[in-house]
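Changelog-linked ticket: biotin example.
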Amino acid sequence: MAKDVLKYLREREYISGEVLSRKLGISRVAVWKQIQKLKDMGYRIISDQNLGYCLVSRPDLLLPQEIQRGLSTTYIGKKIFYFPELESTNIMAKEKALHRAEGIDEGTLIITEKQSAGKGRLGRKWFSPTGGIWLSIILYPQLPPSYIPRITLMTAVAVVKAIKICTQIEPQIKWPNDILISEKKVCGILTEMSAELDMINWVVVGIGINANIEHQDFPEDIQENTISLKEVSGKEVLRVKLAKTFLQEFEKYYEKLKKKEFPSILKEWKLYSHTLGRKIRVDMGERIITGEAVNINEEGALILKKEDGKLIEIISGTIV
Ligand code: BTN
């Protein structure tokens, strides 16, 4: 109901309680209650005895009604679960993904202002205070499990594009999926899935963007290698706009991927690459390999030229 009140408040400068109650078929007291609810969410609404209510400003919260306003996607973000605080959006998304039959459709989004136990890759913690964008998308791609690295690379391109559109900053991608600005991490992607041998059951793509976080607020051990968009642009970024733009870009690239158009996505990935052409060390769990990153193949694997000149294909690992 608060959402409906908001819709009318947005339509005109002032709207009276009486008109609202008539349009919504509720009492004026009920209208007043909904106005209070919106105020509690952070909407600034003033009231004038003669003219009625007027919406003055919106909160920069990642509220579903804000994200969905003008969102041009067909299915990504059409259903949003919003939480002011959550343990981890990936954990919640994985639970929800099991309930596909109960309306947890492809593109369902879990989003929060703050995570108490944000998950990073390789079992690491992910620092997720207020001011960032912490979200997970549920997908049910009819693709073989070998497509997972491609989904991750495609997500990285969508993040770069969204940041570029909203801030004019052009980040780079460190294989497979760290988004960097000035060599420092501004966003991480955590892809988790459940699959059979030849079929994916569900995929959860978790994205964490350090949007409006002060540098001194990052934990000391990551301060040196971490950056926020606010730090770079010198002003707060509009998180709702960035989240919305990202969802639109994500759907665009995901559609391309489903149509087997990964080569064109890869071309863009390479344009933003921080990795190709560099001498790197890759931690593969049981060993570390050194070499030159010469290419990314059509499956999203990194091709490394070892010191002995031999080429090796790396599907998963971390550049150290
Ligand atoms: C990385 O280690 O680089 C991946 C970090 C991924 C963090 C995001 S924040 C939203 C989603 N929920 C989580 O718990 N993790 C991912």
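Closing comment: Example verified and attached. The longest strand covers residues 184-195. The CA atoms of residues 34 and 40 lie 10 Å apart.
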